[in-house]
User: Which sequence fits this backbone?
């Protein structure tokens, strides 16, 4: 059984030297436990933020096997709740096999493609839906801006926004990604934050100002967007990826001034807060996927041993759509 340990915590930018691949004896399931074979592991910006300290979950410390959300097959079961061969979701670790208490795993429905349970019907799609609909509360005709627009959450935010009848403008890194966001995902426009002049470029694409900002990045991009928000605008604070992989985080300088003057509402959320509405989110997402209004975008990296590279690459902007690692065939 292979597992990947966080050998040392990063001092600034995460590197492959922070990780070590270890061979360990095959674990066995005790009373009320199940032995799981990992099929797919979600690779998230959050993996890096957990290394910064405790948040909505425990910190990942030096010596820990990296935590992850996985889709697994049950290979040994000491409980009537799940059977060998069942497909489950679990808070797991970067490893081929993992033992979990049976009550901590979620039996998954049969689907055509397992990877969709990590992308559009998984954390990415649910975060986009709940954050936009319940926190951002857009109305048809309003303008939505979303950062990390070519990423997993951002891509769904924009497509949901279009399905709800809004003007949607993305922010992403580089001309190629920006073109893909418009051509493949159907955004009205996408501006490159790595180019100078983000304020002017965004103002040109948002002639009626910005009503809803779905913030995945924080930092200077948030500072720029704040200046273009309309009165009574809403900012759904989903994440702050620009602050996770650096020694020198930079917050916006115009807070809380512009929030006061423009009567803005800034609200943070964690996808689990809306678990009671998950079934509603999945139904809506299924409808849009079937009608072609939502394109499922996935970025699958092969092999457990490549998980560190996959995370480092995600933080550097290598991915388009939901990044995950395939550990075993399903
Ligand atoms: P993504 O698939 O969106 O990938 C991250 C993207 O962020 C990269 O592709 C990169 O694209 C962009 N990025 C990296 N560094 C910067 C930077 N300094 N400034 C601007 N953009 C940057 O990853 P995730 O879906 O895992 O995460 C997206 C966000 O959603 C994160 O902030 C994460 O913490 C948050 N999240 C929050 C949840 C919640 O419950 N609140 C649940 C899930 C995710 P580019 O090339 O465009 O720079």
Assistant:
């Amino acid at each position: 059984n292979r597992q990947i340990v966080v050998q040392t915590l990063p001092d600034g930018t995460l590197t492959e030297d922070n990780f070590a691949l270890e061979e360990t004896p095959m674990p066995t399931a005790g009373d009320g436990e199940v032995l799981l074979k990992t099929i797919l592991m979600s690779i998230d910006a959050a993996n890096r933020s957990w290394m910064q300290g405790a948040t909505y979950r425990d910190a990942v410390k030096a010596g820990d096997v990296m935590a992850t959300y996985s889709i697994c097959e049950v290979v040994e079961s000491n409980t009537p709740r799940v059977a060998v061969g069942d497909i489950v979701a679990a808070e797991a670790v970067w490893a081929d096999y993992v033992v979990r208490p049976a009550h901590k795993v979620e039996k998954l429905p049969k689907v055509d493609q397992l990877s969709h349970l990590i992308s559009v019907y998984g954390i990415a799609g649910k975060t986009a839906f709940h954050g936009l609909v319940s926190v951002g509360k857009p109305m048809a005709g309003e303008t939505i801006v979303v950062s990390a627009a070519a990423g997993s959450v951002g891509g769904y935010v924009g497509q949901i926004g279009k399905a709800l009848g809004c003007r949607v403008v993305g922010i992403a890194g580089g001309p190629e990604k920006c073109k893909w966001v418009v051509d493949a995902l159907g955004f009205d426009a996408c501006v490159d934050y790595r180019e100078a002049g983000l304020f002017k470029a965004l103002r040109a694409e948002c002639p009626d100002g910005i009503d809803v900002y779905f913030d995945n990045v924080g930092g200077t991009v948030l500072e720029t967007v704040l200046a273009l928000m309309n009165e009574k605008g809403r900012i759904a604070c989903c994440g702050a990826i620009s602050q996770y992989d650096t020694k020198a985080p930079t917050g916006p300088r115009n807070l809380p001034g512009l929030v006061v003057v423009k009567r803005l509402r800034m609200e943070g959320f964690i996808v689990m807060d809306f678990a009671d509405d998950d079934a509603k989110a999945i139904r809506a997402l299924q409808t849009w996927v079937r009608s072609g209004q939502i394109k499922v975008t996935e970025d699958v990296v092969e092999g457990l041993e490549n998980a560190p590279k996959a995370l480092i690459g995600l933080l550097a902007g290598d991915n388009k759509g939901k990044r995950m690692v395939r550990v075993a065939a399903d």
In short: The first strand starts at residue 2 and ends at 6.
